[in-house]
Amino acid sequence: MVTIMKKSNTEISFFLSLFVSILSVSSCAPDFDDFDQNSSGQSQVDFSKYIAVGNSLTAGFADGGLYLEGQQAAFPNIIAAQLKSVGGGEFMSPFFAEEQSNGSGYIRLKGFVNDLPVTENVTDKLAIRGMSPTQRPLYTKYTNEIQNLGVPGMRLDMAFVAGVGSVYGNSYFERLLTDDKTETETYFNFATTKGHTFFSFWLGNNDVLGYATNGAYHDPNDPTTALTEAGLFANLYTNFIEALTAGERKGVVATIPDVTVVPYFNTVTTARLEAGVSAATQGQFSKIYITTSNGVRMATDEDLFPLTFPADTLGKAVIFGNPATAGYGLIEQNPLHDKFVLDRDEVMEITTHIETLNNTIKSVAENKELALADAHDYLHLVKNGLTLSGIDISASYITGNVFSLDGIHLTPMGNAIMANLFIDAINLKYSTNIPRVDITKYRAVILP
Amino acid sequence: MSALYIQALTNNAMKRILFSILLAGPSLLFGQGSQVNTQGIKALGMSGAGSALFVDESSIFYNPGALSKMEGNAVSVGGSAVMYRSAFRETGSADTYHTKFQISPPFSLFTTFGPKESWWKAGLGVYTPFGGAVDWGTEWPGRYELNSLQLRAIYIQPTLSFKLTDQFSVGGGFVYNIGLVDLSRSLPVFFADGSPGQAQLSGTGTGMGFNLGAHYHLDNEVAISLSYRSKVVTKLKDGDAKFTVPTSVAASFPNTTFDAELPLPASFNLGISFPLSPKVDIAVDGTFIGYDVYKSLDFDYKDNTPVLQDTHQPKKYENAFSGKIGINYKTGDHLALRAGGGYVYTPVNGPYVSPETPDNNRIMGSAGFTYNISDKWDITGAYVFQRIQARTVTSATSGLRGAYKTNIHAPGLSLTYKW
Predict the structure, then answer these.
(1) Contact between residue B43 and residue A310 where contact means Cβ atoms under 8 Å apart
(2) pTM for the predicted model, two decimal places
(3) Residue of A159, A303, B88, B174 with fewest CB within 10 Å of its CB?
(4) What is the ipTM of this complex?
(5) Residues 1-30 (B) with a CB less than 8 A from some CB of A
């Protein structure tokens, strides 16, 4: 009996030690040893100095303004953070200071009245240092070295024009230039002299968008409403990329999204306007009349109205020099001015033009062996609706999660999605291992 | 045209464009991922094999048919500490996220009644055949699918068993189930500080089913066990649904109640045991689990809004099989040592793998012992380790892409008193 007990005790202690060893060996949480990382090893791309060339989208413009939170969530800044693990360096941006964090000011959602969004202007903590001779705001200067070179409103055709950075030109570009440079520096020269090793380039949107948001009406007094002609676009685009790729430098370029994929043009629809008119006039009026290049006609569902459509002018007496009648926009004799509608022919014109410009972008990218982020195609997918990480993504105003309150620029979540589009493009082209970003870390539209 | 007109126009122009955020169905599931069979600590030591080998009070769970072959009576109380840790890495990302470390404690109580060496035996089992807790937190890529989930199903099973011959016995039990669930997930509506909203669903439900078994052994102690556990449909009624959302959309997310049905699958088990030597027994068990009962998960909210709609979420589970083998070594009168291993095929199709049960085929290994302290008292211990193999999936419902991997550790201990 004693021997049996003794034997048992030995076995028990052996067993207990086995237990303990199982516990200590395997108690750690599971991990992924080599998680589908590209096996080709170190990439040939030098990410040590990344610059981002572009317009408002690159700058992080959102909710109708440029402000610190939007700047911090700009897609190039998200990309730069992801580049750190593959040799990326510091990435400086012209951030507004904390005490001026609301920058140019922006709009936020104040609430819903009868299920309708009501916005209000944010007017505190602005970075406005004064007014230009043409009574436009000038912003607190930021003239340190930067790598996010995004300038809201920048167009390819204006990138080569000296004086755009003056107080008479683009205030966001003027902000980035020392006083001795504002009259002489071009954006092209500004962007190509930073000593970069890698670049992203997303210009061209405003060469179409300015024209489109003005109802495809080129205001002779406003060069930002011009449509950049395709031949000129191709020359300037090629020149810009030539300079950026000099010395075999690599980069990523992006296509121009279709104007019809943004909430700015697909929220206020003909049907909604008609329903509103019918309800407000007890059925006395039910149609919208528009001016097109082919004359006056009733609006159809192929005609697009901007998000900022001034509904309060409908039915008024004298608008835009037509003295004949009241009922602006509601009767054939007093149609809407051309600039308040993107009629179907104009939509066709713009869509075709964007395709032409995108073909230029694609062929330049191919010739120069650049990565291509096809924002045009991707935003068409978004327009049809996607579910990413449990979030419904679409081109719907506010609820689509991608577009901010201005209906054109991206939310932080939209920027994260865009960053992944760029990262995927770069990884595909150069066999690099830039990690993608978790889009659920970023907010969409803030609700009160 | 007045200001009133303008207001009316604007209203109509933009009405009904807002909030098509559909609250995708939270996927509640007493599924395989949460199924760790720790009811009997002896069987746990052999990775779940042993339904034919062990004829004792835990037969109430493993095979009610074997119960009447017990000579005397016994009561046993067991518990185990299931440590379930999953990892997730989103496709293309460098970041790995883990579920928080927590221990979920399944327990079991088995007791028998009846005359000694009789042709019948009665018993009562209270045990937790399904259940678990998983907490991914609010800062991971799947936060809009799940933050955390706690599940528990408690089965209460009165049982009767009869010997038809000395070698062949049958038995059956009635199962009454109490199910508890508590889950939370983030909602993509954002507060002023950029943080998302949250939905919390909790409730209890009940269900009924049965457990049948037959046990046959030869004189040379080769034994065969057949058992069937029916499905148990747990009906959750008037669970609480609470939403934390910005004030401006609070009306769209009313705090309300919900009903849901959770089918717990049926299983059919075949077990065989045979001696290799007077001291060593081998037990093999194969289990077929009728997971195809889990076709979809439907949620019925009491108060619906354009945002908060009843949901129908396809699950499309398939029937699954598990095989387990164990060895039992009687070192003497006082100590038995055992070890086992098993393989479990997942019932979950790739696109329907979800963070509450990031399932895949799994392997397990185990070790255990029983020590007879005295004629009256036994103590049994076991340790099982399961590895759910890594699986890269794109969720059919959320679009979340990534790889899951899970380790489960479960030490268990039970104490038996015999009379």
Answers:
(1) no
(2) 0.89
(3) B174
(4) 0.88
(5) 1, 3-6, 8-22, 24
